[in-house]
């Protein structure tokens, strides 16, 4: 409410001359207060002197009237000066309060905006993390499938190599068996030949002995 009151264009126009006007009124009130003090002192002394001199009633009443007016001016000027200073302080405090409320409202608005923006950014961050996690899981799944396919191919290749090696080993075993059989046949033939040779030697020596006899 006070902020709306002080936002009236009239105050903005008066703001330029407000300090000068205030100081002028302060000086005027101080001058009136000092003049009233002087008048009170003056007519108080005259009142005492006239009362002691026992002058006529009209002159005494006139002096009392002047003293009353000077005292009235003293009270009015002093009270006006006091109220003017209080008014000045009140206006200053109200202005500071209005500025503080405006700054508080602006800060509250900024805090609310920052909070909303932070919530929005957090939500977007969560969505991005979910998207990245899903993408990463899909990539992991694809890479796992590719790895499985590669492993399957390697297993097939190893099976083929193992089959080839098994066939080669079987063939080698067959060749070794054939070689063993050939070796045994050759050994038997060698034994037969050795027996025949011995028999021939024995038979040849017996024939020669009979011939000599």
From TrEMBL:
Subcellular location: Endoplasmic reticulum membrane
BP terms from Gene Ontology: apoptotic process; endoplasmic reticulum to Golgi vesicle-mediated transport; intracellular protein transport; protein localization to endoplasmic reticulum exit site
Membrane topology label: Multi-pass membrane protein
Domain Bap31/Bap29 cytoplasmic coiled-coil: 153-205
Cellular component annotations (GO), alphabetically ordered: endoplasmic reticulum membrane
Alphabetical list of Pfam families matching this protein: Bap31, Bap31_Bap29_C
Record keywords, A-Z: Apoptosis, Coiled coil, Endoplasmic reticulum, ER-Golgi transport, Membrane, Protein transport, Receptor, Transmembrane, Transmembrane helix, Transport
Membrane-spanning ranges: 74-91
The family this protein is said to belong to: Belongs to the BCAP29/BCAP31 family.
Name of this protein: Endoplasmic reticulum transmembrane protein
Gene: BCAP29
